[in-house]
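Thread title: Can someone regenerate the structure for this chain?

I was given the following input by a collaborator and told the matching structure tokens would be attached. They weren't. Posting the sequence so someone can regenerate them.
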Amino acid sequence: MREMGQRARAAARILAATPTAKKAAALHAAAVAIRRAVPQILEANAADTAAGRSNGLSAAMLDRLALDPKRIEGIAAGLDTVAGLPDPVGETIAEWTRPNGLHIARVRVPIGVVGIIFESRPNVTADAGALCLMAGNAAILRPGSEAARSAAAIHAALTEGILAEGLPADCVQLAPTTDRAFVGALLRAEGLVDLVVPRGGKGLVARVQQEARVPVLAHLDGICHVYVDRGADLAMASDIAFNAKMRRTGICGAMETLLLDRAIAAACGPLLARLCEAGCEVRVTEDLLGLDPRLVPARPEDWDTEYLDAILSVATVDGVEGAIAHIAAHGSNHTDSIVTRDAATAERFLDAVDSAIVLWNASTQFADGGEFGFGAEIGISTGRLHARGPVALEGLTTYKYKVRGSGQVRPG
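Best answer:
Regenerated them for you:
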């Protein structure tokens, strides 16, 4: 870890001074290499997936792990997209001149070396590597054992593109081991690693937050809500709620709790039936049990559970204020949505719900850097410092002050 950190630090110094065009060219070359390496990536992924099934990985984890030609093309396209984004490095955020003539500018600069620890999502190899590189940071990637072969195949293509443009391979390094001890070493790498980003389950994130001696950017839970207001178009609400839960149940932006305004709850029977018919287990408050025989009673712990599966908890609330109160009590500050035609009610929800992402008439599954136009994301942050929501290029920079004077000295 120390050797990798020292090499990463040297590469970060080079990247910090690398022109935008050269960084972009390296990512375009990496995208070409990934498209050329589809057979090798699929072969590696097939081995990972087979091992995952043998080891009892859940359906949600297997879905995160699985690659196909369409998903690999998405990875390559993501590299091209990141390459075309505005480079934040060197951007002047603000500038002003003091009465004494000092000119002060706040300017974006790279963070330095970023460590990314991830489970089961091999696409993170390319997404995180590309975002770090474009923002002028060196990256150290540590995939979980379940995705190790796939990550190595993607990393090989990424390295090919980086080298093709004359940048050091150490710009994006892949851990040579999946030993848990490497994670501990990464978390203790003060002076070598400037930021750690965990992408994985609650156990991984909790361990990182507890053990890290370097700053951490992460979210712990994705307990996302959709609230259907009395002013909602119920057909729209059905489509949004169904997509929010069932499009991909294993991602952090999947809806885990559906909130129904008590005034229109009885009219939501078809929505709940649609979810049941799709194979979702729907756990509801007692007042909703009569809407469909397939509904089951919710338990108190359901409101605080991230299922990452085809399971949903449903509660009735007293209007938008009831929804805001429920989310404040049980949410995880990740992503929450309101469905309504009433603009005033929507604005109240958008203002009052203290989550990183708050939506109006849209699925929570849009909680993704690519969908925000960021090309990709290194993760979702639910914290309140530095970066929040999908973290992409700007979130991977910090800033410094450039102060230009003409001989000023501070009076005694």
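Residues 20-36 form the longest helix (17 residues).
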